[in-house]
């Protein structure tokens, strides 16, 4: 398995660990190459034992539904040509903007990179 995506509650259920950094390391020890864990405050990624985090910066949460899907999809998209750290930051930014409006993310890359 290459990718694994959980939210904080799922990670705690799977590992028994409330500390997100510890939980993601436990999940990594089970064999996935890249693990993403989302929480309402941040996205966390673990790759080859390295941990990367990026905060969600949404000004409101009117579009919270679908946050995990948006975060994981945008991470996988950006990861094809970028480092895990860069992809983590990109995913946090896309997701932050998505959370400000109900429905799917409708912006574009230029919006995110500016």
Q: Which structural class do the helices and strands define?
A: alpha+beta
Terminal Cα span: 34 Å
Number of domains: 1
Helix content: 40-55%
Written account of the structure:
- The protein is an alpha+beta fold.
- It has a single domain, classed as UDP-N-acetylmuramoyl-L-alanine:D-glutamate ligase, CATH 3.40.1190.20.
- 46% of the residues lie in helices and 19% in strands.
- It has five helices and four strands; from the N terminus they run βααβββααα.
- The chain has helices at 8-15, 20-29, 67-79, 84-99, 109-113, and strands spanning 3-7, 34-38, 42-47, 50-55.
- Strands 1-2-3-4 form a four-stranded mixed beta sheet, with helices on both faces.
- Strand 3 and strand 4 form a beta hairpin.
- Helix 1 crosses helix 2 and helix 3 (67-79) runs antiparallel to helix 4.
- It is globular, with a radius of gyration of 13 Å.
- The N and C termini lie far apart (34 Å).
- The model has no long low-confidence stretch (mean pLDDT 92).
